[in-house]
Amino acid sequence: MHPQDHTDAQEIASTVSEARLTSVFGTAVDGIVVINEKGQVLAFNEACETLFGYKASELLGRNVSTIMPRRYAEHHDGYVDHYIHTGERKIIGIGREVEGRHKDGTEFPIELSVGEAATAEGRQFIGILRDLRQRKAVEAKLAEAQAQLVNMTRISALDEMGAAIAHELNQPLTALMLYLQTVSKKLQVNDPDPLLLSIIEKAVGEVERAGDIIQRMRYFVEKKEPEREEINVAELAQECFDLIKLGVGDDRVSFELNASTDLAPVYADPVQIRQVLVNLVRNAREAVEKSAEKRVTVELSQNITADTMDIRVSDTGPGVPDEMRAELFRAFSGGKRKGLGLGLAISRSIAQNHGGDLYLEEDPKRAGTTFVLRLPITGPQEN
Fold first, then answer.
1. Are 110 and 134 in contact (CB under 8 A)?
2. What is the pLDDT of residues 92-107, one digit of tens each?
């Protein structure tokens, strides 16, 4: 072969190789960036331009740390230098999840694979970058769906236990009622102590109330409608205060009720709403146990236009930690050491089943915690 022909063949092969490389660079779905030993960008394909928001012309010759978060950028050149001098691989030849930095400052997850090539100009490093945001979003949704499935499975199991629990508890409650009535009759005949008789009378009332709550919870689990009637919410709130105070002793917590005398009654299930209020007031009392000021306040306000009443239960405690707010009303996620974390979850469900709501009031100017129970004033309209 003539020497000229050989040279021409080499040039043609080189041209074809460059064309293929250019084609790969331009059509690759993943980002491709090439840097030298100094970390300077030698090539930056179109996928990288889309991924990072920079044009290739803006990055060529600049340090690749431009597209890295600062915590990576500060150490990158040192890693490259360490590899060149020791041959110890940290990421070269090993795929790894890292983070990239967009031109607008946004940081996002990427999968990075790095290869090495020896050239006449020295060592070059080829990085293949894949955007992981979509995959991460899918994984997050899948994890959330799985968590919801587990949660619903547990709640479903609780639903199935509801009727059995109600049946089993009715028997000891009935026996307890009989024992209390027997003791009351004996005292009235032999030693009519007014204080003891009053305590027993209250105990009987609480046993009856416990029976009502179990029955209503059974209806709730079975998705039955609340048994609505007109309720004087101020009187109901005062009953809740008296119930919380009973048996607690002098814990120096003050309970305040703020309500005007012209409030309209609320059309709701008294047992279920009492259950919600007792839960809220009890939580508030526990929240102020270690506070210098120990005050629990229930404030009633009426919105005539919206035909609703807001029942605000406030305390002077430390407030709800930020990390607990998102999970506050989810079942089995309570922050207490005891219980299943069902209190607020069930309370909100009861409120929503009445056509109202229960929510945490956000007020950065106010210390402590405030929950708002919103209920419709009038009942459902007849057809």
1. no
2. 667 788 899 999 999 9
